[in-house]
Design a protein that fits this description.
2 helices, single chain, 69 residues
Length: 69
C-alpha cells in the first residue's frame, strides 16, 4: 500500500510509539530479573519481582495483538 507523503510523519510517529510500547514490558522484565540476579532478596521482594515479571510477560502478547488489530 502506498501512502501520500503528507501521511509520512504520522506513520513514522505511530511506528515509534509502537516500538516504545513493545519495549516497555520487556525493559521492565529485564529490570526485575536483574534485580533478582544481582541482589540478595528476602522472600517478600522475591515474590514481588516474580509477580512483576509475570505481569509484564502477560502484557506483551496483548500489546502485540492490539497493534495488529
Amino acid at each position: 500500500m502506498v501512502f501520500p507523503l503528507f501521511f509520512a510523519p504520522a506513520i513514522q510517529s505511530s511506528l515509534v510509539l509502537d516500538n516504545f510500547e513493545l519495549r516497555t514490558p520487556l525493559n521492565a522484565t529485564l529490570g526485575w530479573s536483574r534485580l533478582l540476579l544481582n541482589h540478595q532478596q528476602d522472600e517478600v521482594m522475591l515474590i514481588r519481582c516474580l509477580e512483576m515479571i509475570e505481569l509484564n510477560a502477560r502484557m506483551q502478547p496483548q500489546l502485540i495483538e492490539d497493534l495488529f488489530n
